[in-house]
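haha ok so turns out i had the wrong file open the whole time. this is the CORRECT one, sorry everyone. sequence first:
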Amino acid sequence: QVHLVESGGDLVQAGGSLRLSCAASGIIFSINHMGWYRQAPGKQRELVARINSEGSTVYTDPVQGRFTISMDNAKNTAYLKMNSLKPEDTAVYYCNAQVFSDDSYGDYWGQGTTVTVSS
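then structure:
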């Protein structure tokens, strides 16, 4: 069993910054990749950023240049540094990880952390 716990969501003014954290715990042999998704009210969940175990990253266009994803392999923790936040970044942010646990890879999700950006 693998658990993901997010933290760092908050209310912030436009132009501000936040750092989200996602800690994976449980039976973890390796992590293939970790990522952040977000879901705004009335919209579908979308990928924000993803990083693999080798450090390769992918970002969605609206956050390119403003957000930075990183991962501490020793701590099984991913981070999302968000700068120059905009009201349209307001959403629940979910952590996702593909983890090799027991004898197979599994796809795991956290419960989400809320980011609210006021104008």
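The mean pLDDT is 96.
again sry for the mixup
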